[in-house]
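user: can you give me the structure for this one chain? tokens are fine.
assistant: on it. calling the predictor now.
[tool input]
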Amino acid sequence: MNAKQTILTKCAPWQIDVAAAAIAVLATLLAYFALLEPLQTQRAEYARQDRQYTAQQKEAVRLTALRFVLGKQLEELQANLAAQKVQLRPLTQVNRRVAEVTAMVNRCGLKTANVTLGQVTAGPRWNTIPIRLVGSGDYRNCMSFLHELAGPKSDFAVAGFEITGNPQKTDEPAKFSFDLYWYAALETAAAN
């Protein structure tokens, strides 16, 4: 007899069945870890990548729509900016502009006590003339004046302002001083 037959003949049939079952379980585990587990890992990774791809597609669609909306807004803003371009007046009209600002002060219910013009500063694209307005009026009228002065096509900038009053004497108007800059066209630009 050979060695295999000797081992098998010495074992009881139930022992052979247990050994066969253990081999079958071991073969099943080996097949699972060698074949099925990597396949499930790949499927899980594929599902994760698919979800990520879907989310990225949705984000791309959202960003494309946002880009379109922002592009339209940019076009509108550029058109508005072109339409609201400030036309600077020449320096020769400084007296007229001061008279217009003084009239605006009066329209807003303020009283002007003093108007002082500063030195003209020539810049690369415009001239700048400082103007100081001093007078009296109430706070609301001062704010109304500043609001009207700073319109979208204004050639003025407010450099600073001060409003002072005495809370003990409510019947007296507040004192104000506005430091403004008037932007005038350069002489070469005014001649064109």
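assistant: here you go. Residues 3-82 form one domain. The beta strands are 111-117, 121-122, 126-137, 156-164, 174-185.
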